[in-house]
Amino acid sequence: QVQLVESGGGLVQAGGSLRLSCAASGRTFSNYVMAWFRQAPGKEREFVAAIDRSGSATYYADSVKGRFTISRNNAVNTVYLQMNSLKPEDTAVYYCAGGEVFITTNVGTYDFWGQGTQVTVSS
Known about the structure:
Elements: E1 3-7, E2 10-13, E3 18-25, E4 33-39, E5 46-51, E6 58-60, E7 68-73, E8 78-83, E9 92-99, E10 112-113, E11 117-122
Parallel strand pairs: 2-11
Antiparallel strand pairs: 1-3, 3-8, 4-5, 4-9, 5-6, 7-8, 9-10, 9-11
């Protein structure tokens, strides 16, 4: 089993930046594709970004492309989400997820999840 712990969320003004971190423990981190999802109140959980095992391939939702960057450091078992030019519509709980899959936007194909971290963007 893999445990994931997110951090870095908070309150930021529109146009600002935040960097989320997700620390993994329990098994070999580099075996897993990692992703970020988010869920706003009253909405379904949606895909944000994913990164392959080596960090060489990434994929983004259209809504965040050009503003967010996913990266990972396998030496410290951590995946990051750099969020720039934040908008009020980015407000959500952000979840880190991982799995033994190819990169996918499907929430159901990831095997383990963190507890989430709140991101609030004020206008």
